[in-house]
Amino acid sequence: MITIIDYKAGNLTSVQLAFEYIGCEVKITDKAQEILQAEKIVFPGVGAAKSAMDNLKKLKIIDTIQKVIANGVPFLGICIGMQVLFESSEEDGGTKCLGILAGSVKKFKTSDKLCKIPQMGWNTVKIVKPHPVFTGIEDQSEFYFVHSFYPAPSKKEIIIGQTEYADAVFASAAGKGNLAAVQFHPERSGRIGLKLLENFSKWDGIC
Amino acid sequence: MLTKRIIPCLDVRARKVTKGVRFQNNIDLGDPVEMAVAYSEGGCDELVFYDITASAEEREIDIDMVREVAKAVHIPFAVGGGIKNIEDMRKVLLAGAEKVSVNSLAVQNPNIIAEGAKLFGSQCIVLGMDPVKVEKSSKFPSGYEITIQGFRTRTGLDALQWAKRAEQSGAGEIVVNSVDADGTQQGFEINLTRLIAENVGIPVVASGGGGTCQHLIDVFTKGKADAAIIASMIHTKMFTIKQIKDKLIDAGIPIRRKW
User: Fold this and answer.
1) What angle do CA B40, B79, B200 make, to 5 degrees?
2) Which of A172, B91, B134, B150 is the right S-S partner for A163, CB 3.0 to 4.6 Å?
3) Domain spans of chain A?
């Protein structure tokens, strides 16, 4: 059973349908009690870091998320769900985030007017460290991205995959213990994205 | 490197994909869900569905079909054509579409872009535009005028000014569908695509006129498009997406290679 945390940060349909497609049972919840009982947790999200954090506060599930991650439950952050795991984001003039991963989230900068922000489309992920969620996925595979801000971890050892865009070579995938996080949308990344979700659904949280 | 997207366009009437030139001589091409799966497995990067109506008479969007596509296809897809209001946008997105595209509706009610962007995020609001070439003038500095209702009605709006307004309102992407080129397979409208791509900060998708791989190479290099919509060239089975992509890769265009 995959538990998807619904903290009103965007549309969860595609994440739900992708897991169902690979044969997983899915539960969508915003309740602390259900999150604490989850076997595997997906923390998705699109939109802005600040509204995501505000919603987590309103729902009173920040402690819950910290607790399940500390308890070793396999946990997958996607897009904004990756970004808010860091200490802070430059979005909305500076937003304090969950601080589970060391580092911050920065805005893409470019002087090239043809380099559009947000990055929207398929970009390659260079796998810099093997990880169970990338099992069977070739290096330099392409995934679907939509974002204006990117994660900048302060510890290099958590970086699993890197992607180049605008002025940045950024951590498009990161992991620490039972926590894995990706900036791209595996649920929109075709067969290769489904493979990543399937790997996650079978992962025991140990690297 | 971010790759250029190849986007098959499926015009759907009463659950059948159709294709005509300038909205005429439509012929049935097949089942939309089956075609979406085939193109996705064939390597397309995104899909767009236009005018999804439950039947020829009723003009309601076929939400069940959107959901069927979302269950079967796990790449981004947009829905446009039949969106009448915010509630339609919500239904289409909740059914599993990544984006909604508004065209005539945005001209009639420009607030719809800002409202949609605020509620659902800019990344899912696409402005579709159908510009036609006109004499350059103070009214039409770009030399292109926006038309609506399937090219039938002129709006008096300059294409570039309209694109900039849509960007300011919160559109996340612009589809430039040339009235002059649509369905002709004689090549994309390079000048206007480039003019808009160089003057807005959001991705620009070229549409209308793609008939050969060289047309696509031109619209990405000379036209500076971020993505291109194709229809006839693959619907007729003249090309597979793989064949098109191989040609583009040979020409040095950044293209998604693994799927």
Assistant:
1) 95
2) A172
3) 2-202
**A157 catalytic residue (yes or no):** no
How many Å apart are CA B10 and CA A200, to the nearest integer?
A: 33
Complex ipTM tops 0.90? yes
Q: Is A185 annotated as catalytic?
A: yes
Nearest to A124 among B1, B41, B76 (CB): B1
What sign does the dihedral B229-B30-B151-B50 (CA atoms) show? Answer: negative
pLDDT tens string A144-195: 999 999 999 999 999 999 999 999 999 999 999 999 999 999 999 999 999 9
- β-partners of residue B176 are B129, B206
Residue of A nearest to B122 (CA): A47
* Predicted local distance difference test score (pLDDT) of residue B19: 76
Q: Do B2 and A20 touch (CB under 8 A)?
A: no
pLDDT digits (tens, 9 = 90+) for B99-157: 999 999 999 999 999 999 998 999 999 999 999 999 999 999 999 999 998 788 999 99
- The DSSP letter of residue B70 is H
B101 to chain A, closest Cα gap in Å: 16
Given an 8 Å threshold on Cβ–Cβ distance, is A117 in contact with B201? Answer: yes
A14 CB neighbours in chain B (<8 A) are 70, 74, 96, 98
Residue B256, helix vs strand vs coil:
coil
Does the distance separating the beta carbons of A187 and B1 come in below 8 Å?
A: no
Taken as a whole, chain B contains a residue count of 259
Using CB atoms, which residue from A10, A124, A187 is nearest to B121? Answer: A10
For the record, the structure tokens of A88 come out as: 């802070």
Can the peptide bond before residue A118 be classed as cis, meaning omega within 30 degrees of 0? Answer: yes
Which homologous superfamily is B5-250 in?
Aldolase class I (3.20.20.70)
What is the helix (H) or strand (E) element at residue B69, kind and residue range?
Answer: helix B63-72
**Are A120 and B94 an interchain contact pair (Cβ–Cβ within 8 Å)?**
no
In CATH, A2-202 is 3.40.50.880: yes
> What are the residue boundaries of the structural domains of chain B, listed by start?
5-250
